[in-house]
Amino acid sequence: MSVLVNKDSKIIVQGFTGSEGTFHAGQMIEYGTNVVGGVTPGKGGQQHLEKPVFNTVSEAVKETGADVSIIFVPPAFAADAIMEAANAGIKVIITITEGIPVADMIKVADYIKDKDCRLVGPNCPGVITPEEAKVGIMPGFVFKKGKVGIVSKSGTLTYEAADQVVKQGLGITTAIGIGGDPIIGTTTQEAIEMFMNDDETECIVMIGEIGGQLEADAARWIKDNGNKKPVVGFIAGETAPKGRTMGHAGAIVGGSEDTAEAKKAIMRECGIYVVDSPAEIGKKVKEVMG
Questions:
Q1: 111 belongs to an annotated ligand binding site
Q2: Which of 61, 103, 172, 215 has the fewest CB atoms within 10 Å, i.e. is most exposed?
Q3: 252 in Cβ contact with 211 (< 8 Å)
Q4: Would you say 159 is a known binding-site residue?
Q5: Among 248, 263, 284, 286, which one carries the catalytic annotation?
Q6: Neighbour count for residue 199 (Cβ, 10 Å)
Q7: What region does 31 belong to: left with phi over 0, alpha with psi -120 to 50, or beta?
């Protein structure tokens, strides 16, 4: 069992005919992902990358049975695209767009809370279940199938962790890049819960950053639920100056638990195997998996 996406997922691309949508949809199709079409308002009825283009998400869902959407829509229109997907009955909405205004994301969070869907992102690299479906911008060749789940706030460190795990002779069930914005859909804890409930995942890699409470919340949840599977953790941003945004909009140290040191201490107290350098992730996973 993978989580979120697999070979049976039917994927549409919102912002299909734009330059980003075209490039990454092409890569996804080449990987073997089941892309069934795309949405660009005003271009319905055309073919693009040998797939049908629709004016609206609801048309795409009706015609293709799509249940997953990936969004490459400019920041000003991305919140509407997310809400449109949720309203059309899409179950997994993966939002790559960076720079969506926080006020827009507050509206989105309120809108989707009663909908039967899961939002991943925004400002994320997507989700990949190796050898089945790549829904995002990750370099697919890095990933091999296996028993390690990855959840990461950082895009680049998602592939770095995967590369190290694979080089240790292991592989990945699914990797989820949750995104680094202040307001995101799926939290670290929610991603960890999915992996804890997944029969195939035997070990979890949790990569966090300075700023916010996500990693502390996840660590406490892991401890409270009996540390059922080993979790290897890393927090990026140890040397970041306080009060300054580092790369991601959400990576800013506000409270005392927001620093890398504080997060790592909490994670260790909760029984997570914390490494101090991303270069140690693969070796530590191999060690804890015996």
A1: no
A2: 103
A3: yes
A4: yes
A5: 248
A6: 8
A7: alpha
Range name among 22-26, 82-86, 145-149, 245-249 with the lowest pLDDT average: 245-249
Tokens 């995104």 locate to 179
Cα gap 43→10, rounded to integer Å: 21
- Give the mean model confidence (pLDDT) for residues 8-33: 98
Residue 191 has pLDDT above 70, yes or no: yes
Residue 1 has pLDDT above 90, yes or no: no
Q: Is 149 annotated as a binding residue?
A: no
Count of helices and strands (H, E) across the chain:
9, 14
DSSP characters for 35-51? EEEEE-TT-TT-EETTE
96-122 pLDDT, tens digit per residue, is: 999 999 999 999 999 999 999 999 999
Three-state DSSP class for residue 287: helix
Q: Above 70 in pLDDT, residue 143?
A: yes
Annotated binding residue 20? yes
pLDDT at 60 over 70: yes
Separation between Cα atoms, residue 107 and residue 117, nearest integer Å:
15
Say if residue 18 carries a ligand binding annotation. yes
Distances (CA, A) of 139 to 143, 164, 179: 8, 14, 16
Mean pLDDT value across residues 47-76: 98
Helix locations, the chain, DSSP H? 19-31, 57-64, 75-87, 102-112, 155-167, 188-196, 214-224, 260-269, 281-288
Q: What pLDDT shows up at residue 250?
A: 79
Give the residue among 195, 249, 251 at the shortest CA–CA distance from 225: 195
Section 260-267 average pLDDT: 96
Catalytic residue list contains 24: no
Task: Check whether 98 is labelled as a binding-site residue.
Answer: yes
Nearest to 48 by CA among 23, 69, 66: 23
pLDDT at position 255 is 73
